[in-house]
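SEQUENCE-TO-STRUCTURE ENTRY
===========================
What this section holds: a protein sequence and its matching fold, both as plain text.
Tokens: labelled as protein backbone structure tokens, with as many entries as the chain has residues.
Question of interest: how does this chain fold, as expressed in backbone structure tokens?
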Amino acid sequence: MPRIGPEPIRTDRLVLLPLAVEHAEEMAKALADPSLHTFIGGTPDTVNALRSRYARMLAGAPDPAVSWCNWVISLRAESALAGTVQATVSPSGRGRAAEIAWVVGTPWQGRGIATEAARALVGWLAGRSVHTAVAHVHPDHLASAAVAAAAGLTPSDRVRDGEVRWQADLAVSPRTA
């Protein structure tokens, strides 16, 4: 299966822009709050660390069958970057499956931005013959669980590294932006 690449995804309030190294400076500020790492661990990246990380991500997965799709979340009305969404798309028994994730900076939380971005991402994936979307959410992270549910994913009884596996069968119930 050929790799797929990110392209701009538009919603009512957002544009998901394909990640670029040039986003590092603004994203370092947007994601600077240490509380964003409560459930995922680590600390906020510096601008230089983000530049290096983004360059590695943009180089692509070492496995040619895997696509790394990464976007920054741009707020149309504010002309500001507020977070990221990502999908790692891999071959599966039914075609393609995507492991998805999202993060929205603290100043923009509670406004439905993560939900809008995750729904748009899931809809975009469904339109590219991705049959399954999966997210792993810490059981105490109620906001991320709400985003996963709003994007059409349902929790399972499977746990990996302390996080609950949420999943959607996109061939049955695709979400659109």
